[in-house]
Amino acid sequence: MSELMASLAALAGFVVGALAVMVVRQSVGQRQVMTPTDDVEPDALPQGVASVLAVLPSSAVVLDKGDRVLRASSAARVFGLVKGDHLMAAELLAMARQVRRDGEIRESEIEVAGHKFGQESTNFAVRVAPLGSYGQVLVLAEDQTEHRRVEAVRRDFVANVSHELKTPVGALSLLAETIQDAADDPEAVTRFAGRMQHEAARLTYLVQDLITLSRIQGAEPIPTPGPVPIDEVVHEAIDRCNTTAAAKDITLVAGGVEGLQIWGDDELLVTALRNLIDNAVAYSPEHTRVVVSARAAGAHTESVEISVSDQGIGIPESAQERIFERFFRVDAARSRATGGTGLGLAIVKHVAAAHNGAVTVWSKEGSGSTFTLRMPAFGGMAVAAPGTTTIPLEAAQ
Fold first, then answer.
1. Cα–Cα distance, 115 to 131 (Å, whole number)
2. What is the pTM of this model?
3. Residues 205-263: pLDDT tens digits?
4. DSSP 378
5. Cα radius of gyration (the chain)
6. Which burial class, exposed, middle or buried, applies to 338 when counting CB atoms under 10 A from its CB (0-12, 13-18, 19+)?
7. Strands 121-131 and 136-143
8. E strands along 268-338, which residues?
9. Which among 302, 269, 305, 306 has a CA at the least distance from the CA of 290?
10. Is residue 107 classed exposed, middle or buried when 0-12, 13-18 and 19+ CB atoms within 10 A define those classes?
11. Contacts of 333 (CB under 8 A, 6+ apart)
């Protein structure tokens, strides 16, 4: 926040300086051409001031000595700070009057009622400075709502990461002490060593997912995109999940249309699809199957859809809007028991966004779930390779 206020102060300093220069030049020009009978209009803005205010990205308002709005930027009116020729925020009006009395520049943060439907309030970093010699005051207000939201997300993320790291690290420390105390009991050592391996693997998965998430959530473009064959992505993701699925006697099935392509990063897509399949396996009972299929979608087949369907426990409707949040778990105990990090679906969401796509979910408790990745097709049309057709569902080898 200190950096933001410093930036706002620098901006305000520049604006006030520029306006001051204009006022001085205007005054000099007026003295050169005025006759003794000329009347000065103290409420008029110097020439060029309106042009400066018009290009400012922040909300800018100029008040006269009677608190009437002489000029307001479009942003100030959009945010509801100004209506007609009145400044609506009481806190800003009080600051303007103090600045007019003592001539000192003031900075503060204020909160005003939200200007959008459903928005409770808007946060502003403000700076108020004297302008000219007729009691005029310049008010600059920078919208901080999104900045505050991002800061809150960052704090929550740090807190969640700390908590998630603390659990396996604490478990490893406790298990190490237990093994040391049970050095004369080979059976106990073997059992606790297995638990240590489990916790170490969980810590490794968490670190890997954090690295992957930090790589893709910054809204940076994919470094080396290229045409990605969906068939290869599906089979590679299934291959990486076969061992886990076999342990529960769950059959992984591939099907749909062959030869589809999108433009992007194959490794990121494999990671996203593997996370969806891993989730499907973790939340499905034994002796069931998970189906992965691809198809052309859209009115003109301009998109490719990859869906992962399971016969699992399903997701409550109340939780479906939050399942793509980082560290959110529908069943925290079950997720930790299966080694889940709580980041898999967040990674899927960001991978889809990085490919100009989206991920959606359909689910019903007791009937399973279907997650669908939808992304633009390579070349703008999801055309299958020559000689290929829709193939029946078949068990992946």
1. 28
2. 0.56
3. 778 777 777 777 665 567 778 899 999 999 999 998 998 899 999 999 998 888 999 99
4. G
5. 31
6. middle
7. antiparallel
8. 289-297, 303-309
9. 306
10. middle
11. none
